[in-house]
Amino acid sequence: MAAPVDLELKKAFAELQAKMIDTQQKVKLADLQIEQLSRMKKHANLTHVEITSLPDSTRMYEGVGRMFILQSKNEINNQLLEKQKTADDKIKELEQKKTYLERSVKDAEDNIREMLMSRRAQ
């Protein structure tokens, strides 16, 4: 009777370990993406602050591949604000994904604890 229980627990622990490793990798990836997006957002914000101090008649160029295109100050400001907004949205989305992953691992751990407690009670 003890052998099937042990096999069942071993299988559950193996699944939990695989899930933990996978989740930890996904959380690390999400952290790296959040960090990268934060840097991009900060860069766009600093550029926006610098551009706003320039006069409207200043010629501004946007880098596109290996060339530069003349753009108006308003267009560049709008692009920078849009970059900041999309970075914020992606950061929020990644944070939600990260909390979901952490919660799913915690649920799996709790399920195994319950299984152990029920086995000990028998």
TrEMBL record:
Residues 77-111 form a coiled coil. GO terms for cellular component: cytoplasm; prefoldin complex. It holds the Pfam family Prefoldin_2. Keywords: Chaperone, Coiled coil. The keyword Chaperone applies. Binds specifically to cytosolic chaperonin (c-CPN) and transfers target proteins to it. Binds to nascent polypeptide chain and promotes folding in an environment in which there are many competing pathways for nonnative proteins. Belongs to the prefoldin subunit beta family. This is Prefoldin subunit 1. The gene is PFDN1.
